[in-house]
């Protein structure tokens, strides 16, 4: 819903009725993951996607019925054995889609406001009922107090990790969708490469911070896509800010007086990704300096340097793509090699 929240807010403000279709389960090579959403309003307008185009027409028709009769529907769409052009996923996957009218969505205005603002919230859904789970309260009901309690506890656990999934509570399957606070990307070094990395980080949904000790370079005007620009010694800032298992750290300064103390701190954090820019000679020298500073081999094995995948990048923008590609590959367990010729599933498990 994060992708379509602005459109839903506009429809709510205009008093327009709509239905929301959400992917709740996938099998094999499904094009979108659980939580992907598409909405259709009473005027026939569409926002979002549940399959990248494979079954949108069928979902659109079902959503119009949901709006007309104000009754939720659940549909399963898979590859058509008889004719690949019929409704189905020609990629070979199967998805289950739950389509709900807006009137069935609990505390919808508060939910949309929270999603738009990046505040943590989760929903627990059956086709005709819903819980909204906040860190401090639960609203709505699934029709049974014990089901509400158990499902709410499970939703809080998934929300803590930013995960969405079907779970079983009281012998019933319910779909939990969570919107955690966006993961952080911290870019160190206020250079032209950092501006490109900040842009692509924002595109990927990160909350982006750019940090540099040089105030003349670290300005909001130079990094308009960043959520914040910090003027501070990088290692001191990293010591004072929150870093969790979803955080990615991009060290682009390639200056030992910044890099060494910064990476000593970075390699002690639980950050998902730690990458540092530099030539192979610079990276080898940096590793030797870190060893001399007492950084362990196990910690050094987490360092991605030179940063990024081998795409032959030259420009700052191309380099940013290479860095983003490595972050995505590490996050989802991708190999980074071309899909052509591979036999493994395209959408692997993280």
Automatic annotation (TrEMBL):
Domain XdhC Rossmann: 185-327
Matching Pfam families: XdhC_C, XdhC_CoxI
Entry-linked Gene3D superfamilies: NAD(P)-binding Rossmann-like Domain
XdhC- CoxI domain location: 11-78
Protein name (record): XdhC family protein
Organism: Actinoplanes sichuanensis
